[in-house]
Amino acid sequence: MLNNIQPAPIAGVATVDCTPFKDARGQFARLFCADILAPVFQNRAIVQINHSVTTAQGALRGLHYQRPPAAEGKLIRCLRGRVFDVAVDLRRNSPTFLCHFAVELSADAMNAIFIPEGCAHGFQTLEPGCELLYLHSAPYTPACEGAVRWDDPALNIAWPLPITDISDRDRNHPLLTADFEGLSL
Questions:
Q1: Active site residues
Q2: What is the pLDDT of residue 1?
Q3: What angle do CA 106, 112, 114 make, to 5 degrees?
Q4: Which residues contact 23 (CB under 8 A, 6 or more apart)?
Q5: pLDDT at 5 over 70
Q6: E strand or H helix that includes residue 87
Q7: φ, ψ for residue 52, nearest 5 deg
Q8: For the ranges 21-25, 88-92, 114-118, which has the lowest average pLDDT?
Q9: C-alpha to C-alpha distance for 134 and 146, rounded to whole angstroms
Q10: What is the sign of the dihedral through the CA atoms of 118, 40, 62 and 48?
Q11: How many CB atoms lie within 10 A of CB 50?
């Protein structure tokens, strides 16, 4: 079941491990439980659930976020394959402003990451055919959408594989400028 919630070096970001119940029939796992995840999910409601499928190994998606008033927390789990998952702190006045935290999520490990409001999210597939499940605390709001470029030198993210596939949109987000003050939540 859900166990071992580990805080990351970025405030509010946490990893969640899951130990499934296994028997001769297969296995059963609880992927979300508000009571158990209360330390990280707190009083956030789940208002949207998304499922992504990324076919190519080395593909990259992100780094995306939503600005207030539609800032969102999200719990991300890998249902198939393995991904290098990244959270970037964009919160103004945060002690970890512009720092990132990365974790490998995999279907085999059944782990997840929680990313709070004010942090950008992106991932790179480590094998072909990866599927992610996202539980969001706010609905997607195009007017509040923002992004940080995946290769921004200010972030210094060491993606583990060469980038094999990325959308034109993600490839062309602007770099952060010296006057970027972050998000005020």
A1: 64, 134
A2: 63
A3: 145
A4: none
A5: yes
A6: strand 82-89
A7: -115, 145
A8: 21-25
A9: 18
A10: negative
A11: 12
CB 116 within 8 A of CB 14: no
HEC per residue, 121-143: EEEEECCCCEEEEEEECCCCCHH
What letter represents residue 167's amino acid? S
**pLDDT: is 156 or 19 the higher one?**
156
For the chain, give every domain's residue range.
2-171
Which band of pLDDT confidence, cut at 50, 70 and 90, is reported for residue 2? low
* Amino acid residing at 13: V
Q: What is the CATH number of domain 2-171?
A: 2.60.120.10
Amino acid, res. 120: A
Amino acid at residue number 93: N
Question: Token pair of 116, please?
Answer: 């709070």
- 46-95 per-position pLDDT tens digit: 999 999 999 999 999 999 999 999 999 999 999 999 999 999 999 999 99
**Is 100 in contact with 94 (CB distance < 8 Å)?**
no
Is the predicted pLDDT of residue 3 greater than 80, yes or no?
no
- CB 96 within 8 Å of CB 88: no
